[in-house]
Specification:
It comes from Bacillus cereus. This is DUF4872 domain-containing protein. The protein is mainly alpha-helical. The chain has one domain. The protein has 7 helices and no strands. Helix 1 crosses helix 7, helix 4 runs antiparallel to helix 6 and helix 6 runs antiparallel to helix 7. The longest helix is centred in the last third of the chain and has 30 residues. The two termini are 30 Å apart. The model has no long low-confidence stretch (mean pLDDT 90).
Length: 167
Amino acid sequence: MENARGQSSEGIEDIREAILKGMRKNANDMLQDKNDNYGILNIKKLSAEIPYWTQLPEWEECCIHTYMMIEKIGSGGSGFRKLYTDFLIEASSYLPEIEQYFCIRKMEEIHKLYRILGRKFFSAGRNKDPKILIEVQKCLEDIYALEKEFWENISYISNKSGVVTLN
């Protein structure tokens, strides 16, 4: 039997399981509690370190570089969150739980916070204003809380909706 896209129900289940497997892996990686240089623990670590950045030589350049990573290079948050939002939109046609738990909206909110974070880093560095780092720290704390909630939801969805495998 085929759906409107011409896919068999078996093919749909294969796609659904692949989506769940990817979501499960991402959630496990982001929520891991062994390495504070990885996942959401890294956000928490950076938030705790921000007040000390002004003690670094050329801390302003560190802020500009961090802005570049978040916004331009794509390795510091914003790019991934935008791509993951697009993934969730596509995946929601196979997993209605994504919309049921407002995952798309939450990831869009996280993406917006990363954009704000990038601008705050840029402003702190460009204006050589250490007071802006307090705003950076608050933004990181907000991102951590939202990311934690988001990835816990993704973990719940991916573990309740599919067959849990050891791979």
